[in-house]
Write a structure and sequence with these properties.
Layout lengths: L1 H10 L6 E12 L2 E8 L6 E2 L2 E2 L7 H13 L1 E5 L5 E8 L5 E16 L11 E4 L1 H7 L3 H8 L2
Parallel strand pairs: 1-7
Antiparallel strand pairs: 1-2, 1-4, 2-3, 2-8, 5-7, 6-7
Helix pairs in contact: 3-4
Length: about 150
Amino acid sequence: MKWATTVAKGILGHRPASLQVAALCLRVRDGKTQVLLITSRDTGRWVLPKGWPMRGRSLSGAAKQEAWEEAGARGKIDKEPIGDFRYDKILDSGLAVPTDVVVFLLRVEQLEKTYPEVGQRKRKWFAPKEAASLVAEEGLQKILRNL
């Protein structure tokens, strides 16, 4: 009977969260760590480059690709995540989907002037504590404050 109740809850919308990957792009300038944030296309709020896992790529590889496409950032990405956070992704239909984001550190070696989403977003370097104050997600704020 307990199993049937669990299955029924699953059917009624208690499904696991979706999964995205993000690149926390960082560099050191004059001995100070800086984090690259970009604006989201829909609301213009500050976020990390992130997206869905990609067929044929590791999770870190997909995060590295998102950093290039959304921010023009190229560099070395860690294979192991530095953290994760959850947020509600609002779909075009208006439905909010709980989404877990696994975050990988990308050490930026080059910032390209042209990249796929260059005209769709702004990008800017921030000190980690300032970046933490600009992002909405509490879990991401914690990751940034711990840099």
